Amino acid sequence: MPFATPFGFGAVTVNEAVQLFVHLGIEVDGKYSDGASAELMVPKWFNKDPKLSADETVQQLRQSAEIARAIYLGNHPLDTAFGLHSACIGAQVATCGEAGIPPLAATFGAAEIDKAILDALLRAKNSDFFTGMRANVAGLDARLTPDLDDGAIMAFLGSRQPSQHIAVRYTVGMLDSIDSMREAMRDGYRYFKLKLCGDPAKDRTRLMDIAGALGDLDYRATADANEQYESLSDLRILVNMIQNDAALAPLARRLLYVEQPFARENTWNFALGKLGTAHDFIIDEADDSYDAFPRAKALGYRGVSSKSCKGIYKSLLNGARAAKWGSDYFITAEDLTCQAGLGVQQDTALVAFHGLTHAERNGHHYVDGFADTPELEAQAFLTAHPDLYEQNRGKVRLSIRDGAISTRSLGAPGFAYGLRPDQIDTRANQEQPVKGYGI
Predict the structure, then answer these.
(1) CA–CA separation, 221 vs 119, rounded Å?
(2) pTM of the model
(3) In whole angstroms, what is the distance from residue 181 CA to residue 172 CA?
(4) pLDDT digits (tens, 9 = 90+) for 175-191
(5) Could you please report the per-residue DSSP string of 107-154?
(6) What stretch of H or E contains 4?
(7) Mind listing the pLDDT tens digit for each residue in 19-29?
(8) Domains of the chain, residue spans
(9) Domain 2-157 CATH assignment equals 1.20.272
């Protein structure tokens, strides 16, 4: 997928990304069912090792998917969808680790297969994602989260009231101009995600320019450091400026939280202390295991991002944790450029199920609509989801009205799309799904 404009985050600039598709078949109560999932393999995010090229980090994601395929197709007894995930995720992380693939990249392969399995399961049950997950069709339990019990998980799932509309949080990348924010506001956007560089002085200048340009307009913002801050002292300077600099006051009143200030491995070395009470902080890249959110909570973090590429089940279990811990703790909806079509729909359905009201949605402006997707496939999505897409400037693209997208048509049988799995990724020479596994 070629990007319409370069996407700058942290020390990385991305101009294109490869989209992975998963197609599979399962057997449910003697009935065969197909499922599918999709996700962009964004370079240099799952693994930011400077010794690796962008292509090498994408290759790790390919390898993660291949390893997961072999593990999931292993000789497992009949189980629930979550039971299969639980049986495989430990071996997935360990096997990837032996190949030099870190945990965040390791979970990518499992996450994509889990989504496709859930799609097939929901189709077998003729259920939509929202109804099925409220009834816990996937069989989530507390085996991977000993800090929770099954009752807390069931109470969380059963109480969900999915959002009908989700405000789009417009990302302002390191290469994006402030003029793009003003233009976005004219188009109806009211939520923004501001990328930081990790240098307090440069970030102050950038935030001052944004605060001055937007003035007292009605907006909300989040700030994302993408692991760029190197010390507590630098982060303290940033927070003090946000709190006390008069020029930043208009922005400070509208700032919801700060995301992932430190490198993922350094997150665990710094307790936020008073910083965690001055502003809400969340983890994103550091969320690479089932115990990451409780560990971050102990350090003063209040939230964790939901991204389907990190795992739908971990997202939901983290939501159950936040509900159990109380209103000071929360889940946020972040987006690693989910592409229009299957990727953005499955992730948006997950966001809506949490009941969240705004989400970062990068794919709508960094990628040119459905980009190079075959026209028949793009038109099929438009026909099936006329509330979510529109024909605009020669492309089928997300329909953003008053700064928000609709989730109404995501309630089709299966995981959030009203097409058949064989209508997805029509260019690929797909293998026949391997039959014989049952859940």
Answers:
(1) 33
(2) 0.95
(3) 7
(4) 888 888 888 888 899 99
(5) HHHHHHHHHHHHHHHHHHTT-BHHHHHHTTTT---STT-TTS-HHHHH
(6) strand 2-9
(7) 999 999 999 98
(8) 2-157, 161-419
(9) no
